[in-house]
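All the exercises in this workshop are built on plain-text protein records. A record pairs a protein's sequence with a compact description of its fold. Read left to right, the backbone structure tokens trace the chain's path through space. Once this layout is familiar, the rest of the handout is easier to follow. Here is such a record, shown just as it appears in the course material:
>
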Amino acid sequence: MASAKDSDPSLGYLTRKETEVKLPRPTRVKNKTPAPIQITAEQILREARERQEAEIRPPKQKITDSTELSDYRLRKRKEFEDLIRRVRWNKSVWVKYAKWEESQKDFNRARSVWERALDVDYRDHTMWLKYADVEMKNKFINHARNVWDRAITLLPRVDQLWYKYIHMEEMLGNVAGARQIFERWMSWEPDTQAWLSYIKFELRYNEIGRARGIFERFVECRPKVNAWIRFAKFEMKNGEIGKARSVYERAVDKLADDEEAESLFVAFAEFEERCKETERARFIYKYALDHIPKGRAEDLYRKFVAFEKQYGDREGIEDAIVGKRRFQYEDEVRKNPLNYDSWFDYIRLEESVGNKDRIREVYERAIANIPPAEEKRYWQRYIYLWINYALYEELDAQDVERTRDVYRECIKLIPHNQFSFAKVWLLAAQFEIRQLNLKGARSILGQAIGMAPKDKIFKKYIEIELQLGKIDRCRKLYEKYLQWSPENCYAWSKFAELERSLSETDRARAIFELAIAQPALDMPELLWKAYIDFEISEGEFEKTRRLYERLLERTKHLKVWISFAKFEASAMLEDQDPELPEEETKQSLGAQQLQCLQNARKVFESAINYFRTSAPDLKEERAMLLEEWLNLESSIGELGDVSLVRAKMPKKLKKRRLIDTDDGPAG
């Protein structure tokens, strides 16, 4: 009861004790005697002020007469000129200099500075903008015009310059001048935004006819769908329905096959819909669906469905469209059954409908039209009918046995003694692998190698076996590959690379030896390079040296000599003994580098002797060889002897002779 009495309705029936703010208990001071020296807050602030270090400020300079002013100006100009001499390319220095001259009201000097800055880099449009802004700010209108005119002449592709110039003329009320500038700009065929700015400019002054003329030029310059749609909307906005329709019709004539034609047809149909011309809109939709590929007509089809929901019967229209297109394709394939593009379009139509039996029927009819001649160029389009048929059966119909039958019949049909298609063999094998039928895939690829061996088939078969880790099969396949194409350097290199990856160095070397012993090779330089790189990577420098010598017996090409010399310069003679002291190791390394350099010099000497005696006509090659030698000598450092090569370098000679004329010597 007591608590109810103490409660206060104004405090929400809480007691005063419950609503008290409890402050933290103050700290108890044990020593309460006053300090001997008392410090006031005022004294603390005064001391802080006294101990503060004085701020260093430059002395204020008061200019009292014209002599002092001219001295000050001379000094400042000298500072700026010195700064410019040091950092000529720093644009901010030029801007500060010009603005200072402007602040001194010496506008001729300011202009001179701006002109000098533009001489340094006239391509920087920001300099032109600042220069023109200064002229406009100080109301030198003709000077500003001059600057803008030069800027747009030198930098016609910088839109900002044109916009600023036009804005200035418009602010001055010089509409004719602004129009003239726009015309100059349009002669450069700028982007869409520039044309739209010109049109908006004319519309601000109610020049509808002029705006229409600009739109005509715009759609000629930028014949894009968006441009035509903007033109038609402009006519519609001005209440010219006939002209708007005419614009759309012209756009359809020109851009019916464009990638963005879908949006054009949609806009045209919506325009007719707004004009309450539903039959016209329906016809436009039909025409568009007949002419635009199915893949690009998704939005169009959706709009058409919405239109039909509002004004007609969707199913009937859809069937009519499909039936009409089916009739067109039937007519085309009846006229020319060997026009495989028509068959592809017809099949695509049936696949979009999704009737399996009908799709298979069209495929069977299409593949029955075998090319009349056994020449590959006639079969290249036809074979894709089989490939698409097989992929349809596998992916869409998901009928494995039918897919296998399609591939089997296709392979049986191709005249492999005349030509073959590696793509078909590989697709059939990959299909079997996807069905986890490895034996079937091997059978197909083996059959391919037996009937119509091709590079692609060998490469893919080897890749599959390598992924499975069947090295012996890979070796057998490489052997068959090389029996079929012994001149194929790629096959030899890859075979050797395989053996090397298995650390079978002797096998790899034997393969390279067999390869270079072949009487004919398609790219021997790559094979020799691969063999030499292999020996270098194995650290067999002596064998590499012998290889280079054998290569030089076959060809004395400049690149071979240079490569041999570079190898000699970089080849170390032997591995270092780690137990040798550091000093002896350095000496040994120096001796080895010297030996390498001497070997390289011998190669260069031999090469120059060959070019001098056996091929004296190849003077350019000899000069290039000497340049390489000189570069080598100069790159080595202390061991190199540049003078040794300089003595052999060709010298330029100037020969003087008398000029004889009819009157005697003329000089």
